[in-house]
Amino acid sequence: MLNPDSDRLMRIRRKIAPVLLGPPILAFLPAVTLGTFWLGGEAALLTVALGLPLLFAALGVFGKDKGSYIPRDSVTGMLLREGFELVLDQVHNDTDDTSLKSAVMVLEIDEYKELIARHGQSAGDSVVQRCGERIIEALRDKDTVARIGDSKFAICLTPVQNLDLELTVQMAGRLQASLEQPISLDGASLYQSCSVGFCMRSRAPGHSAADWFAAANAALAEAQHNGPSGIRAYSNDIHRRTKARSDLREDAAAALEGGQIQPWFQPQISTDTGKVSGFEALARWSHPVHGMIPPSTFLPALEEAGLMEQLSQVMLYHALTALKAWDAAGVEVPAVGVNFATDELKNPGLVDRVKWEMERFELPPERLAVEILETVVSDSPDDMITRNIYGLGALGCQIDLDDFGTGHASIASVRRFNISRIKIDRSFVMKADRDPEQQKLIGAILTMAERLDLETLAEGVETVGEHALLAQLGCDHVQGFGIGRPMPFDQTLDWITAHQAKLQDAPVIGTQRP
Protein backbone atom coordinates (compact mmCIF):
# COMPACT_ATOMS: atom_id res chain seq x y z
CA MET A 1 0.00 0.00 0.00
CA LEU A 2 1.35 3.42 -0.93
CA ASN A 3 2.30 5.94 1.72
CA PRO A 4 -0.24 8.85 1.65
CA ASP A 5 2.54 11.40 1.13
CA SER A 6 4.01 9.36 -1.71
CA ASP A 7 0.60 9.03 -3.30
CA ARG A 8 0.11 12.80 -3.05
CA LEU A 9 3.46 13.46 -4.69
CA MET A 10 2.71 11.01 -7.49
CA ARG A 11 -0.58 12.78 -8.20
CA ILE A 12 1.16 16.15 -8.31
CA ARG A 13 3.88 14.81 -10.62
CA ARG A 14 1.26 13.39 -12.98
CA LYS A 15 -0.47 16.76 -13.15
CA ILE A 16 2.65 18.90 -13.60
CA ALA A 17 4.86 16.57 -15.66
CA PRO A 18 6.43 18.46 -18.61
CA VAL A 19 4.33 18.32 -21.73
CA LEU A 20 6.44 17.76 -24.84
CA LEU A 21 4.39 16.98 -27.90
CA GLY A 22 6.25 16.00 -31.08
CA PRO A 23 5.87 14.09 -34.34
CA PRO A 24 5.12 10.43 -33.51
CA ILE A 25 7.64 9.25 -36.12
CA LEU A 26 10.47 10.66 -34.00
CA ALA A 27 9.80 7.98 -31.37
CA PHE A 28 11.29 5.40 -33.77
CA LEU A 29 14.45 7.40 -34.49
CA PRO A 30 16.62 5.80 -31.74
CA ALA A 31 15.66 2.29 -32.92
CA VAL A 32 16.37 3.13 -36.57
CA THR A 33 19.81 4.54 -35.84
CA LEU A 34 20.75 1.64 -33.57
CA GLY A 35 19.68 -0.91 -36.19
CA THR A 36 21.63 0.94 -38.86
CA PHE A 37 24.78 0.80 -36.74
CA TRP A 38 24.47 -2.96 -36.19
CA LEU A 39 23.83 -3.66 -39.87
CA GLY A 40 26.11 -1.16 -41.61
CA GLY A 41 28.61 0.08 -39.07
CA GLU A 42 29.73 3.64 -38.43
CA ALA A 43 29.48 4.82 -42.02
CA ALA A 44 25.84 3.81 -42.23
CA LEU A 45 25.15 5.35 -38.84
CA LEU A 46 26.60 8.71 -39.93
CA THR A 47 24.57 8.61 -43.14
CA VAL A 48 21.32 7.95 -41.28
CA ALA A 49 22.07 10.40 -38.44
CA LEU A 50 22.73 13.22 -40.89
CA GLY A 51 20.31 12.22 -43.61
CA LEU A 52 17.11 11.57 -41.63
CA PRO A 53 16.88 15.06 -40.03
CA LEU A 54 17.35 16.61 -43.46
CA LEU A 55 14.70 14.33 -44.92
CA PHE A 56 12.24 15.13 -42.09
CA ALA A 57 12.88 18.84 -42.53
CA ALA A 58 12.27 18.61 -46.25
CA LEU A 59 9.01 16.76 -45.63
CA GLY A 60 7.91 19.40 -43.08
CA VAL A 61 7.68 16.92 -40.22
CA PHE A 62 9.17 19.35 -37.67
CA GLY A 63 6.98 22.23 -38.79
CA LYS A 64 3.76 20.25 -38.27
CA ASP A 65 4.10 20.48 -34.50
CA LYS A 66 5.68 23.87 -34.22
CA GLY A 67 4.81 25.40 -30.86
CA SER A 68 3.76 22.05 -29.39
CA TYR A 69 6.04 22.55 -26.39
CA ILE A 70 3.88 23.88 -23.55
CA PRO A 71 5.89 25.98 -21.04
CA ARG A 72 5.41 25.53 -17.31
CA ASP A 73 5.57 27.87 -14.34
CA SER A 74 9.01 27.71 -12.71
CA VAL A 75 7.65 27.96 -9.14
CA THR A 76 4.70 25.54 -9.19
CA GLY A 77 5.37 23.48 -12.31
CA MET A 78 1.81 24.22 -13.46
CA LEU A 79 0.60 25.19 -16.89
CA LEU A 80 0.77 28.87 -17.70
CA ARG A 81 -2.04 30.87 -19.30
CA GLU A 82 -1.17 29.83 -22.86
CA GLY A 83 -1.36 26.12 -22.06
CA PHE A 84 -4.52 26.57 -20.01
CA GLU A 85 -6.26 28.33 -22.88
CA LEU A 86 -5.42 25.40 -25.19
CA VAL A 87 -7.05 22.99 -22.74
CA LEU A 88 -10.01 25.34 -22.31
CA ASP A 89 -10.58 25.44 -26.07
CA GLN A 90 -10.67 21.64 -26.17
CA VAL A 91 -13.08 21.36 -23.22
CA HIS A 92 -15.27 24.09 -24.71
CA ASN A 93 -15.52 22.10 -27.93
CA ASP A 94 -16.11 18.80 -26.08
CA THR A 95 -19.06 20.28 -24.17
CA ASP A 96 -20.57 22.09 -27.13
CA ASP A 97 -24.02 20.71 -27.98
CA THR A 98 -23.50 17.70 -25.70
CA SER A 99 -24.78 16.60 -22.31
CA LEU A 100 -21.31 16.93 -20.77
CA LYS A 101 -20.88 19.65 -18.16
CA SER A 102 -17.87 21.61 -16.92
CA ALA A 103 -16.89 24.79 -15.11
CA VAL A 104 -13.97 27.21 -15.03
CA MET A 105 -12.75 28.55 -11.68
CA VAL A 106 -10.33 31.39 -11.01
CA LEU A 107 -8.78 31.73 -7.54
CA GLU A 108 -6.59 34.53 -6.26
CA ILE A 109 -4.73 34.95 -2.97
CA ASP A 110 -5.99 38.13 -1.30
CA GLU A 111 -3.52 40.92 -0.47
CA TYR A 112 -0.59 39.06 -2.03
CA LYS A 113 1.37 42.27 -2.59
CA GLU A 114 1.09 43.09 1.10
CA LEU A 115 2.31 39.58 1.93
CA ILE A 116 5.38 40.18 -0.28
CA ALA A 117 5.98 43.57 1.34
CA ARG A 118 5.86 42.08 4.84
CA HIS A 119 7.68 38.78 4.32
CA GLY A 120 9.60 39.05 1.05
CA GLN A 121 9.41 37.45 -2.39
CA SER A 122 10.80 34.11 -1.19
CA ALA A 123 7.94 33.76 1.30
CA GLY A 124 5.48 34.72 -1.43
CA ASP A 125 6.84 32.00 -3.73
CA SER A 126 6.56 29.45 -0.92
CA VAL A 127 2.92 30.41 -0.29
CA VAL A 128 2.07 30.17 -3.99
CA GLN A 129 3.81 26.81 -4.28
CA ARG A 130 1.98 25.37 -1.27
CA CYS A 131 -1.37 26.77 -2.44
CA GLY A 132 -0.78 25.17 -5.84
CA GLU A 133 -0.14 21.80 -4.22
CA ARG A 134 -3.32 22.13 -2.16
CA ILE A 135 -5.39 22.91 -5.24
CA ILE A 136 -4.02 19.83 -7.01
CA GLU A 137 -4.71 17.64 -3.96
CA ALA A 138 -8.34 18.79 -3.93
CA LEU A 139 -8.97 18.09 -7.63
CA ARG A 140 -9.47 14.96 -9.69
CA ASP A 141 -6.57 13.67 -11.79
CA LYS A 142 -8.09 14.79 -15.08
CA ASP A 143 -8.97 18.33 -13.95
CA THR A 144 -6.61 21.02 -15.28
CA VAL A 145 -4.99 23.67 -13.11
CA ALA A 146 -2.72 26.55 -14.16
CA ARG A 147 -0.96 29.51 -12.64
CA ILE A 148 -2.11 32.55 -14.63
CA GLY A 149 -0.76 35.38 -12.45
CA ASP A 150 1.48 36.15 -9.50
CA SER A 151 -1.15 34.93 -7.06
CA LYS A 152 -3.87 33.68 -9.39
CA PHE A 153 -4.81 30.14 -10.41
CA ALA A 154 -7.25 28.85 -13.02
CA ILE A 155 -9.04 25.49 -12.99
CA CYS A 156 -10.96 23.75 -15.75
CA LEU A 157 -13.01 20.81 -14.55
CA THR A 158 -12.96 17.77 -16.80
CA PRO A 159 -16.35 17.32 -18.53
CA VAL A 160 -18.79 15.03 -16.70
CA GLN A 161 -22.44 14.08 -16.91
CA ASN A 162 -23.47 15.42 -13.50
CA LEU A 163 -22.33 18.87 -12.39
CA ASP A 164 -24.70 21.52 -11.12
CA LEU A 165 -24.36 24.91 -9.43
CA GLU A 166 -24.61 23.50 -5.91
CA LEU A 167 -21.82 20.97 -6.46
CA THR A 168 -19.60 23.63 -8.00
CA VAL A 169 -20.18 26.00 -5.08
CA GLN A 170 -19.27 23.18 -2.69
CA MET A 171 -16.09 22.48 -4.63
CA ALA A 172 -15.17 26.19 -4.61
CA GLY A 173 -15.75 26.26 -0.86
CA ARG A 174 -13.48 23.24 -0.31
CA LEU A 175 -10.74 24.79 -2.42
CA GLN A 176 -11.01 28.07 -0.56
CA ALA A 177 -10.95 26.36 2.85
CA SER A 178 -7.89 24.37 1.84
CA LEU A 179 -5.96 27.46 0.67
CA GLU A 180 -6.87 29.39 3.79
CA GLN A 181 -5.29 26.84 6.12
CA PRO A 182 -2.13 28.33 7.74
CA ILE A 183 1.18 27.75 5.98
CA SER A 184 4.25 27.05 8.10
CA LEU A 185 7.26 29.12 7.08
CA ASP A 186 10.49 29.37 9.09
CA GLY A 187 8.69 28.28 12.23
CA ALA A 188 5.89 30.81 11.85
CA SER A 189 2.35 30.31 10.57
CA LEU A 190 1.23 32.52 7.68
CA TYR A 191 -2.49 33.04 7.23
CA GLN A 192 -3.97 34.10 3.93
CA SER A 193 -7.41 34.29 2.41
CA CYS A 194 -8.44 33.77 -1.18
CA SER A 195 -11.32 34.78 -3.42
CA VAL A 196 -12.97 32.49 -5.97
CA GLY A 197 -14.98 33.20 -9.07
CA PHE A 198 -16.38 30.55 -11.40
CA CYS A 199 -18.58 30.13 -14.43
CA MET A 200 -20.58 27.04 -15.39
CA ARG A 201 -20.23 26.03 -19.02
CA SER A 202 -24.01 26.16 -19.37
CA ARG A 203 -24.09 29.79 -18.19
CA ALA A 204 -21.13 31.07 -20.19
CA PRO A 205 -21.82 34.15 -22.30
CA GLY A 206 -20.72 34.36 -25.92
CA HIS A 207 -19.67 31.48 -28.10
CA SER A 208 -15.99 30.99 -27.36
CA ALA A 209 -13.70 29.62 -24.69
CA ALA A 210 -12.31 33.13 -24.25
CA ASP A 211 -15.79 34.40 -23.31
CA TRP A 212 -16.15 31.56 -20.82
CA PHE A 213 -12.78 32.37 -19.24
CA ALA A 214 -13.61 36.10 -19.12
CA ALA A 215 -16.86 35.31 -17.30
CA ALA A 216 -15.00 33.40 -14.58
CA ASN A 217 -12.62 36.33 -14.17
CA ALA A 218 -15.57 38.71 -13.92
CA ALA A 219 -17.02 36.53 -11.15
CA LEU A 220 -13.66 36.70 -9.33
CA ALA A 221 -13.64 40.50 -9.63
CA GLU A 222 -17.13 40.58 -8.12
CA ALA A 223 -16.01 38.36 -5.23
CA GLN A 224 -13.02 40.63 -4.55
CA HIS A 225 -15.15 43.75 -4.82
CA ASN A 226 -17.32 42.51 -1.96
CA GLY A 227 -14.39 41.92 0.36
CA PRO A 228 -11.76 39.24 0.95
CA SER A 229 -12.53 35.52 1.05
CA GLY A 230 -15.52 35.77 -1.28
CA ILE A 231 -17.04 33.24 -3.70
CA ARG A 232 -19.15 34.29 -6.68
CA ALA A 233 -20.74 32.44 -9.58
CA TYR A 234 -21.06 34.25 -12.89
CA SER A 235 -24.46 35.69 -13.77
CA ASN A 236 -25.83 38.30 -16.12
CA ASP A 237 -26.07 40.73 -13.18
CA ILE A 238 -22.34 40.36 -12.57
CA HIS A 239 -21.70 41.10 -16.22
CA ARG A 240 -23.70 44.33 -15.96
CA ARG A 241 -22.02 45.41 -12.73
CA THR A 242 -18.55 44.57 -14.02
CA LYS A 243 -19.17 46.57 -17.18
CA ALA A 244 -20.54 49.46 -15.14
CA ARG A 245 -17.40 49.50 -12.95
CA SER A 246 -15.19 49.28 -16.02
CA ASP A 247 -17.06 52.15 -17.66
CA LEU A 248 -16.80 54.18 -14.43
CA ARG A 249 -13.04 53.63 -14.27
CA GLU A 250 -12.67 54.83 -17.84
CA ASP A 251 -14.96 57.82 -17.27
CA ALA A 252 -13.19 58.78 -14.03
CA ALA A 253 -9.77 58.54 -15.68
CA ALA A 254 -10.97 60.72 -18.56
CA ALA A 255 -12.55 63.20 -16.10
CA LEU A 256 -9.30 63.52 -14.17
CA GLU A 257 -7.35 64.01 -17.38
CA GLY A 258 -9.91 66.49 -18.71
CA GLY A 259 -10.07 68.64 -15.58
CA GLN A 260 -13.60 67.68 -14.51
CA ILE A 261 -12.32 66.50 -11.11
CA GLN A 262 -11.36 69.60 -9.15
CA PRO A 263 -10.87 70.52 -5.50
CA TRP A 264 -13.73 72.06 -3.57
CA PHE A 265 -12.73 73.83 -0.40
CA GLN A 266 -14.24 73.34 3.05
CA PRO A 267 -13.45 76.04 5.62
CA GLN A 268 -11.86 75.44 9.01
CA ILE A 269 -12.14 78.03 11.77
CA SER A 270 -10.41 78.70 15.07
CA THR A 271 -12.55 78.21 18.17
CA ASP A 272 -10.57 80.96 19.94
CA THR A 273 -11.00 83.75 17.42
CA GLY A 274 -13.66 82.47 15.04
CA LYS A 275 -11.38 83.41 12.16
CA VAL A 276 -10.65 81.19 9.18
CA SER A 277 -7.66 79.02 10.03
CA GLY A 278 -7.55 77.13 6.75
CA PHE A 279 -9.40 75.19 4.07
CA GLU A 280 -9.33 71.50 3.20
CA ALA A 281 -9.18 70.64 -0.50
CA LEU A 282 -11.68 67.86 -1.27
CA ALA A 283 -11.95 66.15 -4.66
CA ARG A 284 -15.27 66.70 -6.44
CA TRP A 285 -16.42 65.49 -9.86
CA SER A 286 -18.88 67.66 -11.73
CA HIS A 287 -20.07 65.49 -14.61
CA PRO A 288 -21.41 67.44 -17.62
CA VAL A 289 -24.38 65.04 -17.98
CA HIS A 290 -24.92 63.33 -14.61
CA GLY A 291 -24.10 66.29 -12.37
CA MET A 292 -22.14 65.78 -9.15
CA ILE A 293 -20.69 62.27 -8.77
CA PRO A 294 -20.12 61.45 -5.07
CA PRO A 295 -16.51 60.80 -3.95
CA SER A 296 -17.60 57.43 -2.54
CA THR A 297 -18.30 56.42 -6.15
CA PHE A 298 -15.39 57.84 -8.13
CA LEU A 299 -12.52 57.57 -5.63
CA PRO A 300 -12.62 53.73 -5.58
CA ALA A 301 -12.74 53.82 -9.39
CA LEU A 302 -9.62 55.98 -9.52
CA GLU A 303 -7.93 53.68 -7.02
CA GLU A 304 -8.74 50.61 -9.13
CA ALA A 305 -7.34 52.44 -12.15
CA GLY A 306 -4.11 53.24 -10.27
CA LEU A 307 -4.67 57.00 -10.54
CA MET A 308 -4.66 58.08 -6.89
CA GLU A 309 -1.14 59.48 -7.14
CA GLN A 310 -2.14 61.54 -10.17
CA LEU A 311 -5.19 62.79 -8.25
CA SER A 312 -2.95 63.93 -5.36
CA GLN A 313 -0.78 65.86 -7.80
CA VAL A 314 -3.81 67.57 -9.34
CA MET A 315 -5.19 68.48 -5.93
CA LEU A 316 -1.84 69.88 -4.73
CA TYR A 317 -1.47 72.08 -7.79
CA HIS A 318 -4.96 73.57 -7.48
CA ALA A 319 -4.63 73.99 -3.70
CA LEU A 320 -1.44 76.03 -4.07
CA THR A 321 -3.06 78.02 -6.87
CA ALA A 322 -5.93 78.82 -4.49
CA LEU A 323 -3.51 80.00 -1.78
CA LYS A 324 -1.91 82.44 -4.21
CA ALA A 325 -5.34 83.69 -5.29
CA TRP A 326 -6.45 84.25 -1.67
CA ASP A 327 -3.24 86.15 -1.00
CA ALA A 328 -3.80 88.29 -4.09
CA ALA A 329 -7.35 89.06 -2.92
CA GLY A 330 -6.04 90.25 0.44
CA VAL A 331 -7.80 87.63 2.57
CA GLU A 332 -6.00 85.68 5.25
CA VAL A 333 -6.01 81.91 4.78
CA PRO A 334 -3.10 80.51 6.81
CA ALA A 335 -3.00 77.04 5.23
CA VAL A 336 -4.69 74.58 2.92
CA GLY A 337 -4.98 70.84 3.59
CA VAL A 338 -4.39 68.25 0.86
CA ASN A 339 -5.00 64.53 1.28
CA PHE A 340 -2.03 62.45 0.16
CA ALA A 341 -2.83 58.95 -1.11
CA THR A 342 -0.80 55.95 0.02
CA ASP A 343 0.56 55.53 -3.52
CA GLU A 344 1.80 59.11 -3.42
CA LEU A 345 3.48 58.55 -0.05
CA LYS A 346 5.39 55.59 -1.55
CA ASN A 347 6.97 57.80 -4.23
CA PRO A 348 10.71 58.26 -3.50
CA GLY A 349 10.65 61.68 -5.15
CA LEU A 350 7.69 63.06 -3.18
CA VAL A 351 9.56 65.39 -0.80
CA ASP A 352 11.64 66.93 -3.61
CA ARG A 353 8.53 67.42 -5.75
CA VAL A 354 6.59 69.14 -2.93
CA LYS A 355 9.61 71.35 -2.20
CA TRP A 356 9.82 72.28 -5.88
CA GLU A 357 6.09 73.08 -6.03
CA MET A 358 6.27 75.31 -2.94
CA GLU A 359 9.22 77.19 -4.40
CA ARG A 360 7.51 77.49 -7.78
CA PHE A 361 4.48 79.11 -6.13
CA GLU A 362 6.73 81.12 -3.77
CA LEU A 363 4.91 79.79 -0.72
CA PRO A 364 6.48 78.72 2.60
CA PRO A 365 6.02 74.97 3.37
CA GLU A 366 4.11 75.68 6.60
CA ARG A 367 1.14 76.82 4.53
CA LEU A 368 0.61 73.27 3.25
CA ALA A 369 -1.09 70.78 5.58
CA VAL A 370 -0.33 67.24 4.44
CA GLU A 371 -3.29 65.07 5.47
CA ILE A 372 -2.65 61.36 6.02
CA LEU A 373 -5.14 58.77 7.19
CA GLU A 374 -4.67 57.22 10.61
CA THR A 375 -4.68 53.79 8.95
CA VAL A 376 -1.52 54.76 7.04
CA VAL A 377 0.27 55.27 10.36
CA SER A 378 -1.25 52.28 12.17
CA ASP A 379 -0.70 49.69 9.39
CA SER A 380 3.09 49.55 9.86
CA PRO A 381 3.92 51.43 6.65
CA ASP A 382 7.05 50.66 4.70
CA ASP A 383 10.27 52.62 5.08
CA MET A 384 9.56 54.90 2.11
CA ILE A 385 6.24 56.09 3.58
CA THR A 386 7.98 56.71 6.91
CA ARG A 387 10.79 58.66 5.27
CA ASN A 388 8.40 60.73 3.17
CA ILE A 389 6.14 61.73 6.07
CA TYR A 390 9.16 62.59 8.20
CA GLY A 391 10.74 64.46 5.27
CA LEU A 392 7.63 66.55 4.63
CA GLY A 393 7.51 67.46 8.31
CA ALA A 394 11.21 68.39 8.26
CA LEU A 395 10.55 70.52 5.19
CA GLY A 396 8.16 72.56 7.29
CA CYS A 397 4.81 71.21 6.13
CA GLN A 398 2.09 70.68 8.72
CA ILE A 399 1.28 66.97 9.14
CA ASP A 400 -2.40 66.33 9.92
CA LEU A 401 -3.51 62.88 11.11
CA ASP A 402 -6.93 62.43 9.53
CA ASP A 403 -9.88 60.41 10.90
CA PHE A 404 -8.21 60.08 14.30
CA GLY A 405 -9.87 57.45 16.49
CA THR A 406 -10.93 55.12 13.67
CA GLY A 407 -7.59 53.29 13.39
CA HIS A 408 -5.08 52.03 15.89
CA ALA A 409 -2.31 54.61 15.81
CA SER A 410 -0.26 54.47 18.99
CA ILE A 411 1.14 57.48 20.81
CA ALA A 412 4.61 56.30 19.81
CA SER A 413 3.71 56.34 16.11
CA VAL A 414 2.13 59.79 16.45
CA ARG A 415 5.42 61.09 17.84
CA ARG A 416 7.54 59.12 15.36
CA PHE A 417 5.76 60.68 12.39
CA ASN A 418 6.09 64.18 13.81
CA ILE A 419 2.33 64.79 13.64
CA SER A 420 1.38 68.47 13.99
CA ARG A 421 -2.37 68.14 14.39
CA ILE A 422 -4.92 65.39 14.90
CA LYS A 423 -8.32 65.57 13.21
CA ILE A 424 -10.99 64.03 15.43
CA ASP A 425 -13.27 61.83 13.34
CA ARG A 426 -16.88 62.94 12.90
CA SER A 427 -18.12 59.72 14.55
CA PHE A 428 -16.94 61.16 17.89
CA VAL A 429 -18.41 64.60 17.19
CA MET A 430 -21.90 63.55 16.12
CA LYS A 431 -24.47 64.56 18.79
CA ALA A 432 -21.67 65.10 21.29
CA ASP A 433 -23.55 68.03 22.86
CA ARG A 434 -26.31 65.57 23.90
CA ASP A 435 -24.30 62.44 24.66
CA PRO A 436 -22.17 62.39 27.85
CA GLU A 437 -20.23 59.33 26.66
CA GLN A 438 -19.20 61.12 23.47
CA GLN A 439 -18.09 64.08 25.57
CA LYS A 440 -15.86 61.81 27.68
CA LEU A 441 -14.20 60.37 24.58
CA ILE A 442 -13.57 63.80 23.10
CA GLY A 443 -12.25 65.05 26.42
CA ALA A 444 -9.79 62.14 26.62
CA ILE A 445 -8.53 62.79 23.09
CA LEU A 446 -8.11 66.52 23.77
CA THR A 447 -6.24 65.84 27.03
CA MET A 448 -3.87 63.48 25.26
CA ALA A 449 -3.29 66.03 22.47
CA GLU A 450 -2.59 68.79 24.98
CA ARG A 451 0.00 66.63 26.80
CA LEU A 452 1.67 65.81 23.48
CA ASP A 453 1.59 69.46 22.39
CA LEU A 454 -0.60 68.69 19.38
CA GLU A 455 -3.21 70.94 17.82
CA THR A 456 -6.70 69.51 17.35
CA LEU A 457 -9.42 69.89 14.74
CA ALA A 458 -12.87 68.32 14.98
CA GLU A 459 -14.49 67.15 11.74
CA GLY A 460 -18.18 66.79 10.99
CA VAL A 461 -19.42 69.69 13.14
CA GLU A 462 -23.01 70.25 12.07
CA THR A 463 -24.75 72.16 14.86
CA VAL A 464 -24.16 75.22 17.00
CA GLY A 465 -24.33 72.99 20.08
CA GLU A 466 -21.52 70.74 18.85
CA HIS A 467 -19.45 73.80 17.95
CA ALA A 468 -19.95 75.37 21.37
CA LEU A 469 -19.16 72.14 23.24
CA LEU A 470 -15.93 71.56 21.31
CA ALA A 471 -14.82 75.12 21.95
CA GLN A 472 -15.53 74.78 25.66
CA LEU A 473 -13.63 71.49 25.86
CA GLY A 474 -10.58 73.13 24.30
CA CYS A 475 -10.60 71.86 20.70
CA ASP A 476 -8.51 74.30 18.63
CA HIS A 477 -10.31 74.18 15.27
CA VAL A 478 -13.61 72.95 13.84
CA GLN A 479 -14.79 71.94 10.38
CA GLY A 480 -18.10 70.64 9.05
CA PHE A 481 -21.41 71.46 7.39
CA GLY A 482 -22.35 73.59 10.40
CA ILE A 483 -19.35 75.83 9.60
CA GLY A 484 -19.42 75.69 5.83
CA ARG A 485 -19.97 73.11 3.11
CA PRO A 486 -17.29 72.30 0.52
CA MET A 487 -17.48 74.88 -2.26
CA PRO A 488 -15.76 75.68 -5.57
CA PHE A 489 -12.92 78.16 -5.27
CA ASP A 490 -14.88 81.01 -6.86
CA GLN A 491 -17.38 80.87 -3.97
CA THR A 492 -14.78 80.94 -1.20
CA LEU A 493 -14.13 84.69 -1.35
CA ASP A 494 -17.82 85.52 -0.87
CA TRP A 495 -18.03 83.00 1.98
CA ILE A 496 -15.00 84.52 3.73
CA THR A 497 -16.46 88.02 3.38
CA ALA A 498 -19.80 86.91 4.82
CA HIS A 499 -18.11 85.02 7.67
CA GLN A 500 -15.97 88.02 8.63
CA ALA A 501 -19.10 90.15 8.74
CA LYS A 502 -20.70 87.71 11.20
CA LEU A 503 -17.67 87.94 13.49
CA GLN A 504 -18.27 91.63 14.14
CA ASP A 505 -21.31 90.95 16.34
CA ALA A 506 -20.75 87.32 17.39
CA PRO A 507 -20.11 86.59 21.10
CA VAL A 508 -16.86 84.86 22.02
CA ILE A 509 -17.30 81.18 22.88
CA GLY A 510 -14.58 78.92 24.10
CA THR A 511 -11.88 78.92 26.70
CA GLN A 512 -9.40 81.74 27.11
CA ARG A 513 -5.87 80.56 26.59
CA PRO A 514 -2.84 82.32 28.01
From TrEMBL:
Known CDD domains for this protein?
Answer: EAL, GGDEF
Offer an example of a GO molecular function term for this protein. cyclic-guanylate-specific phosphodiesterase activity
The EAL domain covers 245-500
Query: One Pfam match, by short name?
Result: GGDEF
TM segments? Answer: 16-38, 44-62
Known PROSITE patterns for this protein?
EAL, GGDEF
Q: Which keywords has UniProt assigned to this entry?
A: Membrane, Transmembrane, Transmembrane helix
Query: Is Ribonucleoprotein tagged as a keyword?
Result: no
Q: Which positions carry the signal peptide feature in this UniProt record?
A: none
Q: Does the keyword Membrane apply?
A: yes
Q: Where is the GGDEF domain?
A: 100-236
Task: Tell me what this protein is called.
Answer: Bifunctional diguanylate cyclase/phosphodiesterase
- What is the scientific name of the source organism? Parasedimentitalea marina
